[in-house]
Amino acid sequence: MEKQIIKTIIGEKQSQICRTELLQRNEHLDENSNYVLVGIRRAGKSYTIYQDIQLKLAHGKAKIEDVLYINFEDERIASMQADELGMILDAYREMYGDRRPYVYLDEIQNVTGWEKFARRLTEEKHHVMITGSNARMLSREISSTLGGSYIQRHIHPFSFSEYLRYKGVQTASNWEYQPETLLSVRRSFNDYFYYGGFAESFDKTEKREWLTSLYQKILMGDIMERNKVRNPRVFRLLARKLADSVMQPMSLKRLENIIKSTGDSISLTILKDYLDYMEEAYLIFSISNLVSPLTEQQTIVKRYFADNGILGLFLINGETKLLENIVAVRLSQLYHSNSEERRVFYYNKGVEVDFCIPEAEQAIQVSYSIDDAITYEREVGGLTKFLKTFKSYQGIIITMDTERHITIDGINIEVVPVWKWLLRDSL
C-alpha cells in the first residue's frame, strides 16, 4: 500500500465534503463522543459523517485540513490489511504535520482486525467516527477490544418527516388544517409508503430498478459473499417467504416446513444462520412476544424489513403488509437507534396486539381499515381486552385513512391515519 494513494484519497474527500449540499437529518451526536454508526447499506451513515464534518466547519470547531476521512470501499485500498492502518495517520501527518485530526473511517469492517487500530485512535485522544453495514462488527469480542470507548448509533433510512423536509413540505403547527399542506403530505406519503426512505432513490424516475439494484448488492455482497452462503437459491427463497409472512409470528420450524414444501431442504441450523446473516446486514429485524417464555423469544418472532422500498419488491397488492411494516420501521427508528436491547414487542396471550412498547405504555393495532364489522370487532375487541388487563396503557389503532376516537367500557382508543402518526416526534 502506497502513502501517495492514501494522501490522494484524503484530499479528494476533503474537497468532496466541502462541495456536497446536505439536508439536516434528525441525528444529534455529542461532539465529545466517539461513535460506531451501523445500519443497512445506503441508509445514510456516510451522510451522517458529512453532516458532522460540515457542522464542525460551520461552527468554527475545525478546518477542512483537520478532517481525515477514509472510505474502505474505495477500490484503491481494497487490499489494505489491519497492520497497514497506521499508514493512514502517517500519510496525514506528512500532509499536515502534527495536527490531531478528526478521524472518520467509513465501512471499516472490510478490514479484518480493524478494532485494535480504532482503540489506539481513542487512546491517542482523537475524535473518531466509524461506520459499518454489518452488526457483527459489534460482537462481544470486538466491543471488548474497543474498551467501551465508542457509542453505538443505528442509522436508519429517512423517516417520513425527513422525507417531507427533503421534498420541501413544511409541517408547521396545525398543518393538518391547512388544505394545501395536507394535500402535499398525503401526496408525498404515497411515494414514501411504496418506495421507502432511501434518500438516493427520491429523485430517481426508475425507483424500483434502483431498489432492486440495492437489494442485490446487499444480498450478494453484504450477505452471501461475506458469509460464503452455499445455497443462494434457498437463501433467495427464504427472503421471499419472509416478505410473505410479514405480520405473522413465525417459528424456525414453521419456516423450515415452508421451504421444504417447495421441494428444497434446509437444516434448522443453516436456517438460523441465514436469518442471522439477514439481521446482521440490517435487511430484516425481529420482535418477540412480550409474554413468551425466554426460550421462545428468539425462536418465535415477527420479522420485518428495514424499509418498505425493499419489502415492496416482493409484493403484489401488498398494502396491508406494507402498512404494518412501515409502523414497525418507525418504532425501530424511535426505540432501537441507540440500543440493541429489545424495546418493542408484540403481544399474544388470549388476544393479539401488533405492537407493545412497555416503556411508553402503548399498545398499537395496525389495520388498513376498520370499516367492516368483522375487522372492527377483531381489532377493537382485541385491543379493548388487552387494555382491561394493562390499565395504564394507551390504545392506538393505526389505519390508512380513518381518524376517530372510540370509547368502550370507559376505555379510550385513538384511531389515527398512518401518515399523521408517522409525523409524531415521539410516542
Please describe what this structure looks like.
There is one protein chain. By secondary structure, the protein is of the alpha/beta class. The chain is built from 15 helices and 14 strands. The chain has helices spanning about 5-20, 45-60, 85-95, 115-125, 140-145, 160-165, 180-195, 205-225, 230-245, 250-260, 270-280, 310, 320-335, 375-390, 420, and strands at about 35-40, 65-70, 100-105, 130, 150-155, 250, 285-290, 300-305, 345-350, 350-355, 360-365, 395-400, 405-410, 410-415. It has a 9-stranded mixed β-sheet, with helices on both faces. Strands 2-3-4-1-5 form a 5-stranded parallel β-sheet, with helices on both faces. Helix 4 links the parallel strand 3 (about 100-105) and strand 4 (about 130). Helix 1 (about 5-20) packs across helix 3. The protein is globular, with a radius of gyration of 23 Å. The termini are far apart. The model has no long low-confidence stretch (mean pLDDT about 95).
